[in-house]
Amino acid sequence: MDISTSYLGLELKSPLVPSASPLSQNLDNIRLMEDVGAGAVVMHSLFEEQINIASIEVDHYLSHGAESYGEALSYFPEMDSYEVGPETYLEHIAKAKSKVDMPVIASLNGISSGGWTKYAALMQQAGADAIELNMYYIPTDPDLSSAEVETMYLKTLRRVCEKVHIPVSVKLSPFFSSIPNIAKKMTGLGAKGLVMFNRFYQPDLDIELFEVTPNLTLSTSDELRLPLRWTAILYKRIQADIAITGGVHSATDVVKGLLAGANITMMAAELLKNGIHRIADIESDLRDWMEQNEYSSVSQMRGSMSQINTKEPAAFERANYMKVLRSIQQDPTGKLWW
Amino acid sequence: MDGNEAAAHVAFRTNEVIAIYPITPASPMGEWADLWSVKSQKNIWGDIPKVVEMQSEGGAAGAVHGALQGGSLTTTFTASQGLLLMLPNMYKIAGELTPTVFHIAARSVATQALSIFGDHSDVMAARSTGWGMLFANSVQEAMDFALISQAATLQSRIPFLHVFDGFRTSHEIAKIEVIPDKVIQKMIDPELVKAHRNRGMNPNKPFIRGTAQNPDVFFQSRETVNPYYLATPEIVESVMKDFKKKTGRSYKLFDYTGANDAERVIVIMGSGADTVEETVQYLSKKGEKIGVVKVRLFRPFSMEHLIKALPKTVQTIAVLDRTKEPGGMGEPLYQDVVTALIEDQSSETPKFERIPRITGGRYGLSSKEFTPGMVKAIFDETAKDYPKNHFTIGINDDVTHTSLPFDPDFDIETRKTTKAVFWGLGSDGTVGANKNSIKIIGEETELNAQGYFVYDSKKSGAKTISHLRFGPDPVNRPYLIRNADFVGVHQFGFLQRYDTLALASKGATVLLNSPFDDKTVWKNLPNKVQKQILDKELKLYVIDAYKVAREANLGIRINTVMQTCFFAISNVLPKKQAIEKIKEYIEKTYSKRGKTIVEMNFRAVDMSLEHLHEVTIPKRATSNIKMSGALPAESPEFVQNVIAEIINGNGDNLPVSALPCDGTYPSNTTKWEKRDIAMEIPVWDPDICIQCGKCVMACPHAVIRSKVVPVELLAEAPDAFKFSKARFKELPDQQYTLQVSVDDCTGCSLCVEVCPAKDKTNLSRKALNMESKLPIQEQEEANWNFFVDLPSMKIKEHTEMEFNKTKETQLLDPYFEFSGACAGCGETPYLSLLTRLFGDRMVVANATGCSSIYGGNLPTTPWSTDSNGCGPAWNNSLFEDNAEFGLGMRLSIDKQTETAVNLLKQMRGKEIPESLAEHLISSDQSTEEEIKNQQHRVDELLKRLSHKPNSTARRLEEFADSLIKKSVWIIGGDGWAYDIGFGGLDHVLASGKNVNVLVMDTEVYSNTGGQASKATGLGAIAKFAAGGKPTPKKDLGRIAMNYGYVYVAQVAMGANENQLIKAFKEAESYEGPSLIIAYSHCIAHGIDMSKGLDQQKLANQSGHWPIYRYDPRLRLEGKNPLQLDSRAPKIPLKDYIYNEQRYKLLTQTHPRKARELLKEAQDWVDGHWKSLEEMAKEPVTETNEQE
């Protein structure tokens, strides 16, 4: 049984890929991922803000209060180097590459027009096999049109693609007016893959302290349906590989993703919650499913239930909405059932 | 490099064990040693020296002694009181003929006051220990003599003090020739090292050393060492010759410079010798027959070499000592020279026909300037027939008339040297930029370079003055610049406050950081400054450095901007080359902090040149702006005449008669020193305010005050004065007002952060919001003046209030206000609160450290008084003895009370009514009301006594006040309580006496720049623990609780204010020893200081800082004395510690170790909490009760 797949032109031994998460900050974890069957690893993200903040912070606190008072001309010992910002990240990529054979995909997260995109080239130099570009912008200016926002995304992508020869994928937000259109434009600029979708740190409101607090909850399998739909719709409609991320927790989820048209399925929450060894369990379950359903390879599965291959293309469109509504029943207490 | 680094460079390479302890100005030597060892740098034998921090200098000396006896080459670094603590071991080390070198940044010993600055009083106290003493005069010599003394000690077996002047040499940056390691290696004879090791203790060849001896042999044994001392001068001389061969630099035991036929000679040692030498060279060229003997080897004193060094023609010798021995016939060097000359004269072959006339004088105490003008004055005096003996120079002694007059304008500096002076703020990076400039010029050109920096004694809004010299000739001038070719004024406000241009020479260039451009700046200059510019024909350049820095994302750090401008207009280097080099050095300095920082600074360099403009100087001074500096007319006479002079930078001009003879200064003086340093201030919105008082409690500088007053008192209030209906049930129908003293505020914004009241419709607005000061400054000054005259609440009078909560204590006036502590300090809010509760009857023993500096460093003190003139009586003894010092105060008060009671007993029923005497003797003074009643009884007693003629009555009058309860507080930081003073603290707690100890625990030696103490947390980076502290914090509270009869509380204002108030009150009311350990966030934690109280809360929530109270009185009620006021930890430790750079840095320097230590720390915190919980649950047993 062949579960190998290709993604961004890279040969992967498995479609199971840990997505960007804190797990990849530890080299031992990365090695374990490979040992238990991961096809590749997406490194934790290097954030545009992080490139500057750590440096600025170290600089600020080493200088703060220094050279002011004769008895205390500084407050910290001055070391030869500090692992701040991208240098550490780049070294980490290089170390990861030396430890594993599977492809290592670097993740770069940002949106502004700053100089941070040059780190794509440095990631390539550090040995990354591909770059996953994670862009998300929260427009707050009512005068900023969606077209302008899209232009911003495309500019950034172009800038990154110009700087590297390794493949670049884009991790998308699901909140575009026309996902197929932006996907097409992105592939036109050189994106070799689409990762669907980004999950954001959504602010929450603390109603006791009256404060806005950052919050990130781990995904559940329910969230799979959003990327599943768009994967099914985009499969073969755009010239790019597709990775599903967000809501992949079991072999069932993986199977669904592959059937919809994904090249790979990524997971983080499942591994964070239940451990990296889950990759092996899921692979085993995947193989069982394939055996039971007489699939001999992942490539055979891929896209077999995509929109263009399904008996019911409308199921992925608005018509399906009516079908769902009709199936909803209300019980006497007012509770909804479907 | 500076003198400390120069000495440490050699010490590190030539030793195997290094014991360290922080003390200014020697701390950096220990810091270098620790840092180098963490970086695995090696000594000349290829090993990494073992560096260990001890609990005190006494401990360091003991460890050194032991390591030496173990056969290792061992050293330490110290100064001042630290050296004094080493003396007992030094006698032993010398008595055992043990080779070692202690490197000393010589500093004043505390007498009428502590001083961190340089003189020789510390090393002179070590004269009788039997140590050799070699004096280095400059940074170069600090390195050279470190090696020479190391080589000499091994050869002679006499231990050496290698001495250089604190600050003047230890902190001066100079271009020097670094001794190559190969040379160091060659200077250290391996056979001598082996011999030292062979003398070490070893069970394979056992012996005993350190015996006790009796009258029969002790004396003779003492004389056995004579040959070694006799041989030492020759040994040092030969080492110096060897050193010259290897390096080309020549030194003699006594170096003479001057005319061969000199008639007048000065003998001197230390950095001042270079000033004399330079002046001698200058005056000799003018035909004066003068010379100088620079004393290198002071001990063993070689009479023979001194006599040899003096020209035969000398008729008068002036010996200068940088120390004072009150009551002596003269200072040490003077006495030695007199003795030497008399002995020579009594010898068979005297050198001189007639013994030269010898005078002695004191100079330069506590780094007092010693200038060529002073040297000339001394030579002029020696030319007189009867020159003044036992003179002083550099001051105006109008009391005993010891001082010589001198010409302050006498200038011998050549035009070839570029002299630049920079006025800056600590926070703007001026000093750092100047240090960088020296590096650029020193390392990249043939020019010599020197930098010396004058710092403020305030920790917030601190002013710095940098003195830089560059030139083709040697620029080793150990005195400040008086005629600068370049003056940089990096703060526009300084122009009005200080006479910045007084140091500019004619035609000098002035660079001004100005918010006004080249077209508008002139009219915004004070009139005096305009006149100086015109009179001295100064060239003026301006740049809005803050604007440029902001645009380059550098915030308020204008260092790069001003440095670029300096190079652009000073012509020290060709402009293009200078800019290239600035960028190169930015890369060198900042690349380790990340490329971002480098790029930001590059941008600032480029932008600076575009924004720098020369000002066209008008022909006349037209400004109406006057210089500030005058203190309010209502300030006391002493404040106006003395304190004001010190504030304005004119302290050097104060004569001896102006100053107190015993170090006693008035309290309540910070209020006259309006420092006006905040850019933004908190502004109160009474409509949002809930009157909780948190801001009042949290304010580190006690600039936010609140009062509740009847509305009629507000009738005359200024229009902008704000108030609202008071929400206090005990104070119905009154008005609440909250006011900020804007000129005392540091703008730290801690108050805004702690404010819980938010605007319901706009949650970003609170009851306090930071706003720009300038537009409302005048209005708020008027409001403050009105506010201070409103009646304050008195704890003894308002008995309707319990003052158990922040809401209530806010209404009490603090007796600690407007300190110069760091903006956002975590210690001072505790002191303000403490004084609110007990201030009018407090006696305070304050350990040396941050609190003794912001509490007692001249010019002003925050310890204040009330309208009755009462307030805390404050004193600082030493670092190590504070608990004992405070206990002494308690004993003294108790003794006086006892005497008063005895006298009362003698008079009771006779002159004093029985009931009054009985009440006076046995009154319960456990509440403020009771204390007030006792005060009334004492008043009554005094009234009655005044009519009694007998001596018992007179004596009781003297002691009557001691019948009123006094509150003794022993206050200090963790360096004192956990380390150097722990032995004493332990004893004082064990004594059972009624003292209250407040430890403001910053978990680090804050005052000396952040060295680790035993209070430092596991995994925190600190100096002396550059690799992360590997052991957990000492549990001082648990140690004290073990006694069973000590009241112990651990508190954190940010965690629970009301628990803190409760702890203060319980501790004070407990008739036994009390210990309160207070978490104090600190600038040395690397945190946003405005979030200090949030960090306190997190420290508590993570379990790092559980709060509790252990009250032995509870046992009498059958209860467990330990009450946990914390809940079980609810956040992981990392959520607290990684908000702080002290912990986070380890993840950036030693990530793996950081992970390991975090785990250990979390385990420790969990275990610690569990054990506290268990202890709090323990049933009270009979045995416990008996305890």
- The string of secondary-structure elements of chain A, in order, is EEEHEHHEHEHEHEEEHEHEHHHHEE
Instruction: Point out poorly predicted stretches of chain B.
Output: none
Q: Overall 3D geometry of chain B?
A: globular
Tally of individual domains of chain B: 7
- Derived structural class of chain A: alpha/beta
Strand order of the largest sheet of chain B: 7-17-18-16-19-20-21-22
Number of helices of chain A: 12
Strand segment count of chain A = 14
Q: Please state the oligomeric state of the protein chains shown.
A: heterodimer
Name the chain pair whose interface involves the most residues: A-B, 39 and 63 residues
Query: What is the CATH class designation of the largest domain in chain B?
Result: Alpha Beta
Sheet of most strands of chain A: 8 strands, parallel
Round the Cα radius of gyration of chain A to an integer and report it. 22 Å
**CATH architecture assignment name of the largest domain in chain A:** Alpha-Beta Barrel
Q: Any idea what the shape of chain A is?
A: globular
Strand percentage of chain A: 15-25%
Annotated CATH topology of the largest domain in chain B = Rossmann fold
Shape-level CATH architecture of the largest domain in chain B:
3-Layer(aba) Sandwich
Query: What kind of sheet is the major sheet of chain B?
Result: 8 strands, mixed
Number of beta-strand segments of chain B: 37
Q: How would you explain this protein's 3D organization?
A:
The complex is a heterodimer of chains A (338) and B (1187). Chain A is of the alpha/beta class. Chain A folds into 2 domains: 5-49 and 84-305, Aldolase class I (TIM Barrel), CATH 3.20.20.70; 312-338, no CATH class. In chain A, 39% of the residues lie in helices and 17% in strands. Chain A has 12 helices and 14 strands. Chain A has helices spanning 27-35, 48-63, 86-99, 118-126, 146-163, 179-189, 225-234, 251-260, 269-274, 278-292, 298-301, 319-327, and strands spanning 5-7, 10-12, 16-18, 41-47, 104-109, 130-134, 168-172, 193-196, 202-206, 211-215, 241-245, 264-267, 329-330, 336-337. In chain A, helix 5 runs parallel beside helix 6 (179-189). The two termini of chain A are 38 Å apart. The model of chain A has no long low-confidence stretch (mean pLDDT 87). With 1187 residues, chain B is of the alpha/beta class. Chain B has 42 helices and 37 strands. In chain B, helix 11 links the parallel strand 9 (264-268) and strand 10 (290-295). The longest helix of chain B has 27 residues, at 1151-1177. Classes of the chains: A alpha/beta (338), B alpha/beta (1187).
